[in-house]
Amino acid sequence: MSTTNTSNFMFQTDKLTIIIGIPILVAGLLGDILNCIVFLSLKTFRENTCAFYLIVLSFVNIGQLLTSLFPRIMSVGFDIDWASNSAWYCRLRIYILQFCTLMSYTAMCLATIDQFLTTCINPRWQQISTIKLSRLLSAIFVFVWVLHGIPFLIYLDTIESPVTHQIYCVVKRDMLLQYFHYGFIVLLSGFVPVIITLLFGFLAYRNVTQLAYRTVPIIRRELDKQLSTMVFIQVIYNCFATIPYIIMYILMRIPALVRQPFLNAQLALASSVLILLYYTYYAVRINQFIE
Q1: Which residue of 80, 238, 240, 279 pairs with 74 in a disulfide if CB–CB is 3.0 to 4.6 A?
Q2: What is the mean pLDDT of residues 49-74?
Q3: What's the confidence (pLDDT) of residue 206?
């Protein structure tokens, strides 16, 4: 009975990945491409620091969907795992994936911090935010995250399971594997960006609500409101899409739970649902909130 139920959960996981994953992938790619087109075509946004971060966000989100969600759909949904046939593909995919993930969250954090600074009542804080600084910070973080992924290029490889004879892409150094699970996934891609974006997103929202009581040009006031709405919506998606997945990810690392086949299958199904919800963060079309 337990074996039958476990097989049913596995079948449902495959089906959900196809039914839900493909629409998220298509909508996400179209949405991020439209984000780039809108922000780059309007001079008002091209010269704005927060909009610059949102452009960076949209570009790396496209990379994230193509290197993470698309291979997952092929592997889980259609049983086509390209990583099992090529060690270099295995390494390169994880390398690009970690870069796009970290750069996406970095751009989101910088956008919320920037929006907080530009809406502050103190002119000195407003002057910190410049397009030159935003480009410099983006270049610095691109360089940092490019270096950050080098160990994965070195220590990632494919191995064959002695039980199932399936080939998996794994990290061959225990310390790096633990960092991947808890440093990269749980902290850098989970709790840290959520805390930063929630904090500065709330502060920016509070500043925007006070704009009506300040002597601010109407055009500037409306632009700040639009950008704050975009950032705030993305922050909410970030919170609700990331936290449940991170909690489930931690649960899936507890040996006592994964040793039970039926419970492990239930967790795998829940994890598949939550990871698809997680990918909606990369698929939000933020330019739809432009009036």
Answers
A1: 80
A2: 92
A3: 84
Phi, psi of 134 (to 5 degrees): -65, -40
Query: Which pair of structure tokens corresponds to residue 40?
Result: 């780059």
Q: 104 and 282 in contact (C-beta within 8 Å)?
A: yes
What are the start-end ranges of the H helices in 149-191? 150-155, 174-178
- Of all residues in the chain, the percent with pLDDT exceeding 70 is 85
The CA dihedral of 84, 89, 92, 97, to the nearest 10 degrees, is -60
Does pLDDT of 105 surpass 90?
A: yes
> What span, in angstroms and rounded, lies between the C-alpha atoms of 271 and 151?
27
Answer for the pair 57, 104: CB distance below 8 angstroms, yes or no.
yes
Q: How confident is the model at residue 99 (pLDDT cuts 50, 70, 90)?
A: very high
CATH code for 2-282? Answer: 1.20.1070.10
Q: State the number of CA atoms in the 13 A half-sphere of 290 facing the CB.
A: 12
Residue for token pair 């997103």: 201
- Residues 235-248, mean pLDDT to the nearest whole number: 90
Looking at residue 223, its pLDDT comes to: 66
User: How far is it, in rounded angstroms, from Cα 116 to Cα 199?
Assistant: 10
Positive or negative, the CA dihedral 69, 74, 78, 80 is negative
Query: Where is average pLDDT lowest: 63-67, 91-95, 220-224?
Result: 220-224
CB 179 within 8 A of CB 151: no
Asked whether 101 and 38 are in contact (CB, 8 A), the reply is no
Asked if residue 21 lies in contact with residue 73, where contact means CB atoms within 8 angstroms, the answer is yes
Separation between Cα atoms, residue 95 and residue 151, nearest integer Å: 9
> For the chain, what are the domain ranges?
2-282
pLDDT: is 284 or 121 the higher one? 121
- Residue whose entry in the numeric block shows the structure tokens 């790619």: 29
For the entire predicted model, the pTM comes to: 0.87
